[in-house]
Amino acid sequence: MRFAFIIILANLFGVGIAYPNYSSKPSTTLRLIATRSRVPNIQGATGTPCAGNTPNDRSAWCAYSIDTDYENVIPDTGVTREYWFEVKEVTISPDGFMPPRLAMTINGTLPGPPLVADWGDWVVVHVTNHLYQAMNGSTIHWHGIRQNYTNPNDGVPSITQCPIAPGSTMTYKWRAGQYGSSWYHSHIGLQAWEGVYGAIIINGPATANYDVDKGALFLGDWTHETVDQLHQDVQLRGPAKKLSNGLINGKNVYGNGTNTTGSPFHMKVEKGKSYRLRLVNPSIDTHWKFTIDNHIMTVIAMDLVPIKPFTTNVISLGMGQRYDVIITANQESVAESFWMRAIPADKCSQNEMADNIRGIVCYGNTPKQPRTQSYTFTDVNVCEDELLTNLVPHVPKNVDLPVSPVWDKNVTVSNTRNAENFFRWRFNSTSMNVSWENPTLMQVYHNELGFSNSSGVIELPFKDKWVYLFIQNTGVTHPIHLHGHDFSILAQGQPGRGTPQWDGSIITENPPRRDTAVLAGNGWLLIAFKTNNPGAWLMHCHIGWHVDEGLALQFIERQDEIRDLVDYTPFNENCAAWDTYVKSQNIVQEDSGV
Questions:
Q1: 11 CB burial (10 A radius; 0-12, 13-18, 19+)
Q2: Which residue ranges does the chain devote to CATH 2.60.40.420?
Q3: Which CATH superfamily is domain 8-13+396-567+577-583 in?
Q4: Gap between the Cα atoms of 36 and 44, Å rounded
Q5: In which region does residue 146 sit, left (phi positive, over 0), alpha (psi from -120 to 50) or beta (all else)?
Q6: Tens place of pLDDT for every residue, the chain, 594 residues?
Q7: How many C-beta neighbours within 10 Å does residue 350 have?
Q8: Number of neighbouring beta carbons within 10 Å of residue 501
Q9: Which bin fits 332, alpha (ψ -120 to 50), beta or left (φ > 0)?
Q10: What are the contacts of 224-230 at 24+ separation with CB within 8 A?
């Protein structure tokens, strides 16, 4: 039985060719293959900027520019960047709390090593699983990377691959067809929120000038128990209890007054210079408001889409989202040090350290304790996206509509309890439950197409069509992430925020495009994307508990073309290794499978 879901298809006028995108930052795990490398001045990186890309003109990029349509044009750099990742367990205390706890990481650090590539590079990553103590399989998903015609590299267990067994290695390969800021993370169980994540940085042009690229700035939540320990309670009671802390680039203090442990993140700046910060929210269950005292941010990109710059003193980040911002160090007459603040939006995010998740921006060589005051905000506690009117893509793309759209056919979010009385989330009355050892791509290979209802399958057999989804929500906010595509946001809202219900108005002229958008509590989200990328693509809530509890579905797009995308020799070898490990260790799957 196939998954019941409402989609509307319309003819697409003209075919756009899209490409995958990936990024990386040079580290000891990097090897460059071929002769050319152009890496702009990200601090800690090596190399020189692409021709023409200078602090006075960040819009240029060799023979291309910020005006180039990156969905149809991709530079041929002749470069492959190769990395080696080890998923391993470590004992850490990023906020100094004792005793430290067991975590999972890439190469032993939190966050893991950044991946940096130039627009157009190929990226090869060898991932070895060393989770012997936890006896966990693992995968790595390249969040926001569209994987055009490279669907088997998307890194989703039960969908595009079997888990990587402890002691085994899997190689991922994809092309950096877009540019901007993203992140990679495990996509099995709750591993991402145990610490298996890091930055993806794809160098390219920008919509505003800046002097120095500071790289990724992660705003993550943290627990003093493992998230797997907390999950049992979440499954039984629904909402999670207050989380212990928040981290900025893997650091913070814990406690209040003089009774504190740990140390805050420091960022050094030089007066008069401008700095690009790549904000990333890797949290399991925290929607952030980010601000730097006395400084204005110029926002130049959302997720992996360059936008027309706008200025603000606070930016709102849902789980899985990214924003690129520029700040200018022009406040030296006010103070030598300033607080940067990650503030949980308390209508959907509870944290013990809500008032003290901070880093320090320091003018000079010696960081001093700031005495600056926060801006006064309205709606700091509200869990919502930035205004759609501010999020204008620089490369314009319009959305065509069907002649007679039927918007009353809705996709609904709901929850229930299963036979064990555990909490489960659902799209249209279906909670996803798929099998690690029998991924969708294997079923396609064997032509086993009688998908169960719990597989959450929506088939999209047609090439170059528009797909429209109108999603309605319960009282809980959900950040919705789509793999394999950027989607256009045609409408978004919630009761009490302008209108009590959707009034039917939509944006079709160059609407915001991104891969993760906030579906507000009791609100609505109307999105559209094109069937221009064959594969099996997951769509899910990016709250860790919720995807683990089934709030996901999958699109099988242009199924007839999928088999030709898969090299089934390494695919089947990986699944055979996992099957052997499962049988030897009596592994039992207890979650949604994704």
A1: exposed
A2: 8-13+396-567+577-583, 30-203, 212-390
A3: Cupredoxins -  blue copper proteins (2.60.40.420)
A4: 19
A5: alpha
A6: 333 333 343 333 222 222 223 233 333 345 555 433 333 344 333 345 688 899 999 999 999 999 999 999 999 999 999 999 999 999 999 999 999 999 999 999 999 999 999 999 999 999 999 999 999 999 999 999 999 999 999 999 999 999 999 999 999 999 999 999 999 999 999 999 999 999 999 999 999 999 999 999 999 999 999 999 999 889 888 878 899 999 999 999 999 877 899 999 999 999 999 999 999 999 999 999 999 999 999 999 999 999 999 999 999 999 999 999 999 999 999 999 999 999 999 889 999 999 999 999 999 888 889 999 999 888 778 899 999 999 999 999 999 987 666 543 468 899 999 988 899 999 999 999 999 999 999 999 999 888 999 999 999 999 999 999 999 998 899 999 999 999 999 999 887 665 667 788 899 999 999 999 999 999 999 999 999 999 999 999 999 999 999 999 999 999 999 999 999 999 999 999 999 999 999 999 999 999
A7: 16
A8: 12
A9: alpha
A10: 224/97, 224/101, 225/101, 226/101, 226/102, 226/103, 226/194, 227/190, 227/193, 227/194, 227/284, 227/544, 228/189, 228/190, 228/194
Specify the amino acid at residue 487: F
Cβ contact 571:163 at 8 Å? no
Asked if residues 126 and 169 have their Cβ atoms less than 8 Å apart, the reply is yes
At 214, which helix (H) or strand (E)? strand 212-222
The C-alpha torsion from 32 through 204 and 106 to 542, rounded to 10°, is: -150
Tokens of 371: 């005495």
For residue 544, the surrounding DSSP H or E stretch is: helix 544-548
Quick check: helix, strand or coil at residue 95?
coil
Q: How far is CA 426 from CA 97, 414, 501, 541, 554, in A?
A: 36, 5, 22, 10, 13
Question: Which has the closest alpha carbon to 331: 361, 290, 357?
Answer: 361
Q: Please state the CATH superfamily assignment of the domain spanning residues 30-203 in this structure.
A: Cupredoxins -  blue copper proteins (2.60.40.420)
Please give the Cα distance from 38 to 202 (Å, whole number).
Answer: 11
User: And the tokens for 135?
Assistant: 């006896």
- The class of domain 212-390 in CATH terms is mainly beta
Neighbours of 255 (CB within 10 A): 16
C-alpha–C-alpha distance, residues 80 and 78, integer Å: 7
Contact 566, 573 (CB under 8 A): no
- Tell me which DSSP letter residue 583 carries: H
Q: In whole angstroms, how far apart are CA 445 and each of 439, 440, 569, 571? A: 10, 9, 12, 11
CA distance 3 to 19: 28
**Measured distance CA(276)–CA(301) in Å, rounded:** 11
